[in-house]
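[Automated response] Your request has been received and processed.

Submitted sequence:
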Amino acid sequence: MTLAAPRVLVVEDEAALARGLADALRFQGYHADVADDGKKGYEAAKSGGYDVMLLDVMLPVASGFDVIRRLRAEGCRVPTILLTAKGAEEDRVRGLEGGADDYVTKPFSLAEVLARVGAQVRRARMDRGDGERFEADGVVFDLGRLVATRGADEIPLTPREGAILRHLRRRAGNVVSRDEFLLQVWEYKSAAVETRTVDNTLAALRKKIERDPAEPAIVLTVRGAGYRWGGA
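Generated structure:
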């Protein structure tokens, strides 16, 4: 059976940039739709059916931060790549903490965006077919559903976060370096990129799942080397 073409939602108010992204995606075989403000982007994403959303931070009507935060609060887990201003680290951290899966900084190359979209599509499709369930430090993880449960609280996970947990658990007993994460989880062809990407994503994940993010018990830091699975 042939899989349907992956569907990508581009939420970007710069018309030329939005058109260029959509054309490049369509040339690569994706189905691409465009929304030019935050409200339209939210409504399109909420309607479902998208494999990935490219979401600009600075948008009319509602910012990208508002869009992703509202979608995640309502249970919409469409994998989301933020488009942020170059050097705006606070935007990237805020976006990841709000539920985004990845980001690219402007100006960016189409090749980079396409690579990251492809990685998100592969990851999301793998996660939807994976019913792994396990418990660590009182948290029950269901990576197939992309949720974690502590007591009565259900915590939504992004596809990227699910992939991180799966990889750490598979490598239990070993230290996973930032470069390994970039190559194996982010699926970059080279690890010669900004490793803050990994640290920011792990920090956001810890805030969600750890009893005390300052003293984590599930995702442990090995100073100067990377991260290690701390669950049983």
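Summary generated for your ticket: The domain at 7-127 is CATH 3.40.50.2300 (Rossmann fold). Residues 57 and 64 are 4 Å apart (CA to CA).
If you did not submit this request, please reply to this message.
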